[in-house]
Amino acid sequence: MRRWFHRLGRPGLHTSYAEDSGIFANNVQRSIAFAAVVGFILLAFLLDEPDDRVWLLLLSTAFVYSIGSIGLNLVTGYAGQVSLGHAFFFGVGAYAAAALGGSADGEIIGLGLDMWIWIPGAGLIAALAGALVAPIALRLKGLYLALVTIGLVFLGEHIFRSWTELTGGQGKGREPAQMSLFGYRFDLDGNLAGIAVSKEQQVYLVTFVLMVVLTLLAKNLVRSRVGRAFAAVRDRDIAAEIMGVNLTRYKVVAFAISSFYAGVAGAIFYSITGFVEPNAFNLLLSVTFIAMVVIGGASSIAGSLMGAFFIALLPKFIELVLDWLPVDPTTVTQAITTNQIERILFGVLIMVFLILEPLGLYGIWIRVRNYWKAFPFSY
Amino acid sequence: MTRFLQATAEGLSLASIYALLALGFVIIYKATQVLSFAQPALLLFGAYMASYLSVTLAWGFWWGVLVAIVLAGTLGALSERVALRPMVGKPVFAAAILTIGLDIAIRVVVNDLIGPDVRAIGDPPEGAFGAPGLPWGNTALNWGGVIIQPRVVAMVITTVVIVALLFVFFNKSRMGLAMRATALDQEVAQAQGINVGAVFSMAWILGGVTAAIAGVFGATAFSGLTQANSVAALKALPAVVVGGLDSIKGAVYGALLIGLTEAWTATYQAQYLPWLGPNFSQVMPYVVMLAVLLVRPYGLFGTPEVERV
Question: The whole model's pTM is what?
């Protein structure tokens, strides 16, 4: 009991290696995480009015973005391989899922498989694409790598536009994969253990569970041998190589895992959005993911989640602020739309965080925590 | 053969746009160690101002373009002073991402100003280049079956002149020497009494100016000025990479290679390699970039980075 209090008061104090590298630093964090999971699940049942569907969809999108942003953080934040090509892998996952889980329609490919196949399948196909791209990262470093991954996005966009059997082509699109697991349809209103649930609630729950599982896996990965190898490659790859870290292997692994996350995120994103044009997987989407990592905090899983939620909820937040301001919203939207404010704010926030708080929201949280840890003394 | 020469002429006009943009990228990168993703925004801003001043306010082509170029240079210097000066000494990648944020913020405003319609840039007064038949959009010169628009000739000549001027500037002027010294080592340059801040501003002014001129070039085409014109700046990136991020010579050769390949692809790909899909020429620059980088990781003329353990 005393030990428990001790930890409560000194969250940064670790007395063993296992404690230091645990998925959760202490019982407080473990309890908070558990409470958050329970809270988010309960939230799904509390948001049962028809008006709440917007919020459920918004939060589902935030969960999907979280998965994608964790993926980017693994390759860019942890392994230090700057990738602006995340949108490409996201798109590969989306169309792989649509081909595996969607229904065939005329010339369009569709196998109509179950969700337990198309979610991992989309991830694996994206991971394969990542592993194929990784050898480029062996030859190129820094900005040259970033620029090549930009090229990848443009090439991907071209392929998505041209391969109409897969994507339906520009302006037409195609049906997404069907969210059905062992015959149970998540995309229809249903009945979960005796409680009537809407399709939005079900989609929310499925996405949330996936996010939690993938978050825990990522947390576990970065504290393992692989995670330490990533950090060594990031901090100085030549030194890492001398110490016996196999650069080829870990760069390929980093790209493959990151792309797996992007692929899974893309798969679900397509399914919950319903209709996506082939040119949606563009440079702006890559930049959006980079923004999540930058704003949330590089090389921090918790930061990835914060960044993803921040970016996903930003438009709604701006809308609410505009409603709340004592000006007639129509006069505002005549001069400049909510979408434009969002975009400007998005750009400005990237700049502000990079200049003022390179550790992102996670860094802010650490500073707030450290302040209260020593309260009322300043250090 | 006529067809090939026609494609080559179009390639040269693309190359002149890419060369100017690539020079902007390289000058900024060499002097400040920042890869500026804000070039699309500067391009669009320059082109919009030129169109606004010369057509909407009816200042005439020359005044409109001249003032637009000055304004774009100012915007470049301002962006550097406000957003990038605090990033000196930070990782190159952080600064590059920051310019993406800058690009987004500026481009939203400029896109809103441009609106959904196509805008035009005025024509230079008749006889400006001694070429008959200006305004330059409509009439074309016919050189032995190869149709060349006067604007293409003007673009290529202007680019050659600007490249020559930059060459003289970097090699003969005091500021050029300071910029070369800063590119070599910022701290040592400062220790020698060079005003490194002024060099940074100068680099971004040149970046803004070259982007604005490229923007005006792009907007003189039949398609005019739309929000999509900024894509040219992203297609100039492969030219920079092919030439090497820190090589001015490389920027010009890279632009030539990219511009010509793109135009040749546009002419022949639909006929010989139709399975690559429509508009493949639009992504050809990136294919060339990938191919060159796999053979030469620092581009054709870039300096290989020497790393310590």
Answer: 0.88
